[in-house]
From TrEMBL:
It comes from the Bacteria. It comes from Streptomyces nanshensis. The keyword Oxidoreductase applies. Residues 8-291 form the Luciferase-like domain. This is 5,10-methylene tetrahydromethanopterin reductase. GO terms for molecular function: oxidoreductase activity, acting on paired donors, with incorporation or reduction of molecular oxygen. Pfam families: Bac_luciferase.
Length: 326
């Protein structure tokens, strides 16, 4: 089991994210994963720096820490040719420590370039498929053109390529996206502890690792942790349909007014009890995931790192699917 730390780019500025990544390496995390947004989910979060700049700085400040985007949408805000170039460069400057996490995106971030974000999930998946085909094509070396239904590139070449392309983890929440992950990715990325997601991926021929975010909120008191998560991370309880469709933070503010403190304590492992965190992580291990990313919504990142070192690092590393789940 590999354990990652979520760099919440919507909640912290770039210098603080870099500092947290360095601290995560010192604490013994295997990798960090950063959200790639243009807007935060909520105005109260107050940040959204350019993820690729942050990752480049983290690569320069760390030695062995893995890096990942969680996740980049390579269809609207970025053209896939740009993502192919950016990922190849980051793989080089990190000495092969980078994993490209991709997904079909959210209206929150993609509409900002003035292109229509598709209402149809099927269209988004088709666009993602074409984007991955372009990225793979450009990583094969030489000049290439591509004419798809939604995306194209003309006479393009990525000149600086690593000897081995970075792995691609594709975000999935159901059978169609899991199939894309199996066919065009090297792994799967998810946010739900649903064993059906990994089952669809394996049945479609996917053999790579499964990345998943585990929602936790650390503070010395459970209520303090829960109130911090309510303030900054209640958007996570809206469900993927809402998360992918709303255009701006003000819409998420309105959509989450009914989220209660007890809803947070049900969804997040809140407070100082390591067993709550371990039980939450076990559900994801039982669902077939073997790359667990701790998404801490608590108010004190450094306190959480100390907690991880003291209480979580060793048991999480030893975590395996339970006999019942297996």
């Amino acid at each position: 089991m590999e354990i990652g730390y979520k760099l919440a780019a919507e909640a912290f500025g770039p210098q603080e994210l870099i500092r947290q990544a360095v601290a995560a390496e010192a604490a013994g995390f295997d990798f960090v994963e950063i959200s790639d947004h243009f807007h935060p989910w909520l105005e109260s979060q107050g940040h959204s720096p350019f993820a690729w700049t942050v990752l480049g700085a983290v690569a320069a400040r760390t030695d062995s820490l893995g890096l990942a985007t969680g996740v980049t949408c390579p269809t609207l805000r970025y053209h896939p040719a740009v993502v192919a170039q950016a990922a190849a460069t980051l793989a080089l400057v990190s000495d092969g420590r980078f994993v490209l996490g991709v997904g079909s995106g959210e209206r929150l971030n993609e509409h900002v370039v003035g292109r229509e974000f598709p209402d149809s999930v099927r269209v988004r998946h088709e666009m993602l498929r074409e984007a991955l085909e372009i990225i793979r094509l450009l990583w094969s070396g030489g000049y290439h053109s591509y004419d798809g239904r939604y995306l194209s590139c003309e006479d393009a070449r990525v000149f600086d390529l690593p000897a081995t392309p970075p792995p691609v983890a594709v975000a999935a929440s159901g059978k169609p996206s899991a199939r894309i992950a199996a066919e065009l990715g090297d792994g799967l990325f998810a946010t739900e502890d649903d064993p059906e997601i990994m089952r669809h991926y394996r049945e479609a021929g996917g053999t790579g690792p499964g990345y998943a975010e585990v929602p936790v909120a650390w503070a010395p008191q459970e209520e303090t942790a829960a109130r911090a998560a309510l303030e900054t991370t209640r958007w996570a309880l809206t469900g993927w349909k809402v998360m992918s469709e709303l255009p701006n933070p003000v819409n998420f503010e309105a959509a989450t007014t009914s989220v209660r403190l007890e809803d947070i304590t049900e969804a997040f492992a809140c407070g100082p009890d390591p067993q709550r965190c371990l039980r939450a992580a076990q559900r994801y291990a039982d669902a077939g995931f073997d790359r667990l990313v701790l998404m801490n919504a608590g108010p004190d990142p450094d306190g959480f790192f100390d907690f991880f070192v003291r209480e979580l690092r060793e048991p999480l590393t030893r975590l395996r699917a339970s006999a019942v789940a297996a």
